[in-house]
Amino acid sequence: MARRQESARGSMPLSELLISKESKAMASFGVRDLDTMMRFAPRRYVVPAPLRSLHEVNEGEEVSAVVSVVSLRDRAMRSRRGFILEVIVSDGIEDMPLTFFLTKPHQVQWHRGRLPIGAHIVIHGTVGRNDYRGELQIAHPTYEPYEDTDEGRIQAQRPRPVYPLRQNIAQSTMRSATEKGLEFADSLSRPVPDETLLRRGLPLLPEASRLIHTPLTLEDTQRGMAHLRYEEAFVLQAIFAQRRAQDERTPAPVLAAEGPLQGLFDERLPFTLTDGQREIGEKITERIGNGHPTSALLQGDVGSGKTVVALRAMLRAVDSGHQAALLAPTEVLAEQHHRTLTSLLGELARAGQLDAHPDATRVRLLTGSQRTAGRRETLLDITSGQAGIVVGTHALLTENVEFASLGLVVIDEQHRFGVDHRRRLRTKGPAGQSPHVIVMTATPIPRTAALATVGDLDVLTLRESPGQRAGVTSFVVHEKLPKWEQRMWARAAEEIAAGRQVFVVCARIDEDEADAPAPPVLDENGKEQPPALDPARGVTQTAARLAARPELDGARLGILHGRLSGEEKQEIMGQMARGEIDLLVSTTVIEVGVDVPNASTMIVLDAERFGVSQLHQLRGRVGRGEHAGIAFFDTSARPGLEHSQHLEAIAGATDGFDLAELDLRRRGAGDLVGEEQSGLQRTLKHLDVMRDARAIEQAREDAFAVVAADPELTAHPALAGAIADRLRDADPDVERS
Predict the structure, then answer these.
(1) What pLDDT digit, counting tens, does each position of 38-65 carry?
(2) Contact of 195 with 90, CB cutoff 8 Å
(3) How distant is the alpha carbon of residue 139 from its chain centre?
(4) Contact between 122 and 50 (Cβ < 8 Å)
(5) Angstrom distance (rounded) from CA 41 to CA 161
(6) Could you tell me which residue, 521 or 13, shows the higher pLDDT?
(7) What is the third-level CATH fold of 54-158?
(8) Alpha carbon distance 604, 47 (integer Å)
(9) Inter-CA distances, 221 with 337, 396, 550, 621, 674, Å
(10) Helix (H, G, I), strand (E, B) or coil at 128
């Protein structure tokens, strides 16, 4: 059969290769064609026990043995429907029965057809004991024909693939299907050029398929899987390479002016820019100063000064006669950014007002909950170009928002926005041009994870902090030790008495929404164990309980959560910023961007329910001013157990990059970058970005070279097809950004 070069979706359908039972089994996993089936890897492999004589084995042992069939006998079961098939086998020294409990007559006939008297077979199973006769037996062993040759002995001991199963699907069905598929392995679509694989010392796809599905050794499985991992990385990097190439062909506004706003802003800053901020700023200036769209990821730890770096770039856009937009994932964060930018800019943000600087621009806020009059005024300023900087939520992406000349987009907390969002922003540039895009994240991404998940972006990293913050010390508080919890609330009261403010974060709004109770956990004696964790607390009930605590008597309490209206949220955060609230009980709506310099204490209840990056972000909300911050990770977990140890590790690591490594090892790249991201990392099938770092980097080098030589992949239709399939898997609506 001729080798196919088209998309994997167009490869040979399994209905043409397999019997109905096998094709249905594969279809239950979404596997409907040959290309997909040959890449459907086993979950693990089972290595048979060493070949032994039957007279050496004991009850409970795993055994492999070469035997001959001596006799067969079947009978109907007495107590229930079905049949017992008993096959006596011998290894020449010892006889032993193989027992099969079968429900249908055709199953009996199937085994009889494969086990004629005198047949030589190799069996694998667990030795048990017959309840009636008390003799040793092997129930439901696996078996296959055996040839007494070197190759036969190797086959008898080869690892057996173990595939994932659905209800009523047998492992033998999955193995049979993949083994049939191997007959057509030469026709598989091969997205990686053969010469590239050979140069990297990797097996070609037909050989890799055999190594994966019918290996002779565990080393075979590793070589076969190395191909799949490299292939996945290669297709992924080819996508990123094409996006880079597309950027090189797309015009973008040239933001090269050395206008007045940048210099005036630098003079206003109450602190000196760090070397890192200046270095990253120069790199951004270089990128946005050319006529092709920049796609950069600006990452830095909490408090590293990313916002100032981004604002200087936005002012450069305004000085160059264009507009800049800052996109935030929530209204609370958008409003916080708007307050921060207008505060930093002062008179430079008040164009049209009496106290404005002559060179000032306008900084506008656009959110979904704005009142009609304010929204209309903002839209007019955006359309006319009077608003040089616009801050907003997803509302900025709607069709009725028309910019006069959008030159730069800054996306905060990029993992909250998908590829589709970036694509829509790309269409809002002036006269067919694409604006430059800078995405920011305070959840640092280790290098190999960045290559595998945001590899179409230039990664710019801020590692040092401006230094004007007092910092945060973190502690784990175990509620199973009551004195610790009492001291935590007493410490919060002391901070309030000293004129500072406290955040208390809960995992849910209301405790009536608690998760369904988990099934009981039993110990080895069948006794029910107490649950490892208590139910999560809610904002509403926690606020009521805290109001009744004697330590907090007289403290001014507030609550904040997602069910409040935009105006209510804005008013609460305004009260917090003005110091009118001493203790704010909130959900994670305050996780990012909220800046209250007077807040010194962060208490996270049920901390074990939050991710690593969430806890790091939350503790970054305090210690932002002159007062040192304290973060308490409160947990109902027992000291020393897994949840407790994990929290202790987070509390002890203050560097966001170290925490990112911890999070990546524990949960994987998809969770690290964020499950809301509509993108490629959610569909990683074989790659592990920590284990496969070298493969990812090699694949990047090779894929970028292939795309550079053939941007449209005219000579590589199989790769073009694999890219189309991969993008469709990641997001049915995705387009190249």
Answers:
(1) 999 999 998 888 888 998 889 888 898 9
(2) no
(3) 43
(4) no
(5) 9
(6) 13
(7) OB fold (Dihydrolipoamide Acetyltransferase, E2P) (2.40.50)
(8) 47
(9) 52, 50, 64, 48, 31
(10) strand
